[in-house]
UniProtKB/TrEMBL annotation:
Keywords: Stress response. The lineage of its organism: Archaea, Methanobacteriati, Methanobacteriota, Stenosarchaea group, Halobacteria. This is Heat shock protein Hsp20. PANTHER family: HEAT-SHOCK PROTEIN 20 FAMILY MEMBER. It comes from Halococcus morrhuae DSM 1307. Belongs to the small heat shock protein (HSP20) family. Residues 69-117 are annotated as: Disordered. Pfam families: HSP20 (PF00011). It comes from the Archaea. Residues 28-139 form the SHSP domain.
Length: 139
């Protein structure tokens, strides 16, 4: 007489559920992800480039203060299959964010950004240096 293994029954149940609902490819992707950026130092400005495919311009939030650039983007995704009384319907919110410390002060009011074909480019002019300093004589 052989003993039943309850774990085999549980595994079979999960396999049946997986077959019924389909395999979910993005199950292990976290809801919030980090954002990779490129920072270029030009003579008079910094240029930050970030890939944000699938986001709309309105989904992106940019701010700069105290030598820190903050980029965040958020979007809703939905997947629907079947019709009428649906068999599967999924919704999720995706977001990415990044705070980037800048090596020098920037002219915050002169910062500009473009978003073309999923690529965000932020131009941050460097703050004017105090070249108008004067020499102080020691008595």
């Amino acid at each position: 007489m052989s003993r039943r293994n309850p774990f085999e029954e549980i595994e079979q149940m999960f396999e049946q559920m997986g077959d019924q609902f389909g395999q979910f490819d993005d199950m292990n992707v976290p809801a919030t992800q980090s954002l990779s950026v490129d920072l270029a130092d030009h003579e008079d400005s910094f240029e930050v480039t970030a890939d944000l495919p699938g986001y709309e311009r309105e989904d992106i939030d940019l701010s700069v203060a105290d030598r820190t650039l903050r980029i965040s983007a958020e979007r809703d995704e939905s997947t629907e299959e079947g019709d009428g009384n649906y068999l599967r319907r999924e919704r999720r919110r995706r977001s990415v964010s990044r705070s980037l410390s800048l090596p020098e002060e920037v002219a915050e009011e002169e910062a500009s950004a473009t978003y073309t074909n999923g690529v965000l480019t932020v131009t941050l002019p460097k703050a004017a240096s105090d070249e108008d300093s004067r020499s102080i004589d020691i008595e």
